[in-house]
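Moderator note: this is an archived Q&A kept for reference. The question asked for a predicted structure of one protein chain; the sequence and the answer are reproduced below.
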Amino acid sequence: MNHTTRFAQLAAILCLGIAAPAFATSEIDARAALSQHGYVTVDDLEYDDGLWEAEVRRVDGSRGEVAVDARGRIYDARDGRPLLDAAAIGAALSSAGYRDVRELERDGALWSVDAVAADGRRVELRLSGYDGSVLSVQNDD
């Protein structure tokens, strides 16, 4: 999608009074971030629940799934950074005001969680496996 088309879409969204998408990273930006972090190939790049996800090949030849957030931060379980366990993720959720945590599941360097937000809404969350920060919140209808 070119920049003119993207601008027109955002302008239409704002004119209709609909909230704009929560992400600012384009596919081009996500590819650039992955390339800058040394990934040799990037395949099947898709935007899902606030993050860009891709199949990559690393410099060492290994393949795997990674994610890129709107700030260009990479989430790769094989990059050597320590990952939080379920107990630490539960504690991070609790301190952020979430309760009734269900379906806590790690996928690579991300955690997916169903929980109840402080305002009582049931939500689906995606969290960083590195620090427990909430990366994406979707209403769970």
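Archived answer notes: Residues 3-15 form the longest helix (13 residues).
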